[in-house]
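=== Structure Prediction Worksheet ===
Name of assembly: unnamed complex
Input type: mixed (protein and possibly other molecules)
Chain count: two
Listed entries:
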Amino acid sequence: MKISKGEKIFRVINTVFLLTIAAVSVFPILNILARSLSSTGGIASGKVYITPIGFHWGGWLFILKRTNFLNSFYNSVFITIIGTVIAIIITTLTAYALSKPYLKGRKFFIFLYIFFMVFDIGIVPNFFQIKAFGLFNSIWSLILPGLINPYYLFVLKTSLEQMPESLEEAAKIDGASYTRILVDIVVPVSKASIATIVVFFSVNYWNKYFDALMYITDSSKKPITLFLFELIKLSNDTEGLGDISLAATISPEIMDASAVVLTVIPILLVYPLMQRYFTKGVMVGSIKG
Amino acid sequence: MSIFQGIKNYMQKNLLQRDKSWKSFKNFITGHWELYLFLIPGLIIMILFKVLPISKITIAFKQFKPLLGLSASKWVGLAHFRRLFSDPHVYRVLRNTLVINFLQILFVTPSAMFLAILINEITSTWVKRSIQTIVYIPHFFTWVVVYSVFYILFGSTGIVNSITQSAGLKPITFFMRPGWFRFLIVSSEMWHTVGWGTIVYLAAITGIDSQLYEAAVIDGANKFTQIMRITIPNLMPTFVLMVSIRLGYIMTSGFGQMLVFYNPTVYKVGDIISTYVYRMGLGQADFSYAAAVGLMNSLVGLLAVLGANRLSIKFTGKSVW
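=== Predicted Assembly ===
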């Protein structure tokens, strides 16, 4: 096909424009990475863009060794792994049952999930409920309420509905139970869809900060998001920063940047793995809940 | 047929039918009991963390005293709701909620569509992939990270202020100036969600009939005309759906973002309903009042969702859920 001159110009301008947007998108991350690896003097010079000035690891080491970072990191890993595993089991079971159009009472259950997708009673009643369950200051207060997410549930339900019924027919004729069919046929066939919601759940758990802000006061139980929140928001508050005399040798700017970088690295490491799956889920979810 | 006969017939028919439907339901359960078993864990979680908290809303109708506990605290009826309507802060936070949502819907929602259209025009798969990969990333960061990034970039020693200073300007306290603060809220929302928002539009673009473009090319339409006359009109249903979803969550959205971004110097423009509820309740321990404001917010929010759904069905024929 012949391409007109105007179209050629459009393509060049468009590519340049989008590359600029991509650069602007990624610049903040590179800038903070560079700052975290710069010296105090380097940062003071105001010339740190995407390469560190006066390279040193001090900020990283300080965050890793002298603060509650690692402890919070373990908490987040625990919450994310345990939460995601249980959530996936519950969601798969629920989505499979709701994907059967002949299930009696199906409409009611779907209504229930939709209703609670759009309605939340508010933070005060939730707070009192968590206290009433004795979950205040327990890491489980960050896991249990997030085990069901109607939006992710509908994403999985929709893709299970698209699975041809014939796949299950043969097994049914052989007298296999639903449990058997679910474990041996449905789950292996829907691996990609389940992987999509694994991505959603784990990102959700890893990123959760508000629940922790409300329910966790014990610093040994705080997740990484809350650690970062307190470090950045309450820079005057030295609690949790350990030895203050050591803190003096590393400027708060370097500490902030290092904490951000160390929080973000795990996400960036698994990002390529996740990328294969999430787009599909967004599309399924947007077509129909 | 006598009336008596009629009643008898009626009863027989109905009782029989009820009996039959009960039997078929019982049969269904025996054949499919596993499916109900599968539903139980999810329902337990829903009941514990979504249904039971509703019972705690009594706090909004009582004067909660921590020493007495919730059940022994005195009932005060609608006192907290009356206070709500005379609280000047409520009008302020309501206005801020609307303004911030309006700004974000105005700037962020259409940007995702235009970005998707431009990304779609890239012919090299490799370049396209790379751009997509990069612009999706910020969506995976929690608001705490997004705030930290902006705080570092726009803070007093950040790169933005070093640039303005080397240009001979005074440092700008971005997080304390109302105007700049709004700019930060909108631009951080942009950074966080625009890339992610393109996915839906990119999917919708692939669904547009390619014959439309072929016909347009024969008629001599250039790229710009094709985008204006074919792509954008075909994306409108998706756009309306996205705006509807955004409108539906108007009362609750922005909480996670605002709670990290705002500070007392910008309460005037940054304090929204949900942050106000949080501060009154968990900050100042005025639990009863906060619960009342929160309840009003939830109810208005529910109306907003239902209204948005109506809107979406009317304009696109699609329900939000």
